[in-house]
Specification:
Largest sheet: 9 strands, mixed
Helix content: 25-40%
CATH topology: Rossmann fold
Number of domains: 1
Distance between the termini: 9 Å
CATH class: Alpha Beta
Order of helices and strands: EEEHEHEHEHEHEHEEEEEH
């Protein structure tokens, strides 16, 4: 049996062929990674939050994907000058997806923005501009390039079982998670930045700040799909 994995998407102005109009989209590498791991990817565009319960009820696993900054108002903060272009529709949709996933104990993987949304959903907060804290731009180089970041996983975590002790990952985040109630730190960068969190217990709830879909980082997707397969059974 191949589990059905939902992936949250962007809603952006896009151009293809003769068209230039709003579109629901996601980089292909997300779906490819799920398919290679044995799952069936399904895209979940940001619609009315009330529909989240129905969507999640058909799924075996959920990925909250990367994207724009989370609205600081969601965690009671004023915007940093460099916190821009948040998407209120996507915030509301993904928080509703997580709420529905919680009710059904669905396996969840958060990627980059997804980790931040998961932290905010749990009542946590974010550091809105990481270079203010670490003094460098390695986690979020300018343009479309990913920063090379070395991370160390925490002993005893699910993440260490999936990835081993250390890894070099591709990052593109100028924000980071500060508080994460209900989660433990699962990996840090050499500068101390929290690069992954996970929830204790049997249920798969793992989130990473990097983009595993951009590299040969099959462990995370294999872990999610294995958990989703068990959930479906």
């Amino acid at each position: 049996m191949r589990p059905l994995i939902g992936l949250s998407t962007y809603r952006e102005q896009a151009r293809w062929g003769v068209w230039d109009q709003p579109a629901d989209l996601l980089p292909t590498r997300y779906a490819d990674s799920i398919q290679r791991a044995g799952g069936v990817p399904v895209l979940l565009p940001p619609i009315e939050p009330a529909a989240a319960t129905y969507a999640v009820g058909r799924l075996d696993g959920l990925v909250i994907a990367g994207g724009a900054d989370v609205d600081p108002g969601r965690y009671g903060a004023d915007p940093h000058p460099l916190t821009v272009s948040w998407r209120t529709d996507r915030d509301a949709w993904e928080l509703a997806l997580l709420e529905a996933a919680e009710a059904r104990e669905l396996p969840v993987l958060g990627i980059c923005r997804g980790m931040q949304v998961m932290a905010v959903h749990s009542g946590g907060t974010l550091d809105q501009h990481l270079p203010d804290s670490v003094g460098h731009q390695t986690h979020s180089p300018s343009g479309p390039e990913f920063g090379d970041v070395d991370i160390e996983t925490v002993a005893g975590t699910r993440l260490r079982m999936l990835l081993g002790d250390r890894s070099s990952v591709g990052c593109h985040h100028h924000q980071s998670v500060r508080e994460h109630p209900g989660f433990v730190v699962a990996a840090r960068a050499e500068d101390g930045t929290v690069e992954a969190i996970e929830a204790p217990g049997e249920r798969f709830r793992v989130a990473v700040q990097w983009h595993p879909e951009t590299r040969a980082d099959a462990g995370l997707f294999a872990g999610l799909v294995a958990a989703a397969t068990s959930y479906a059974a």
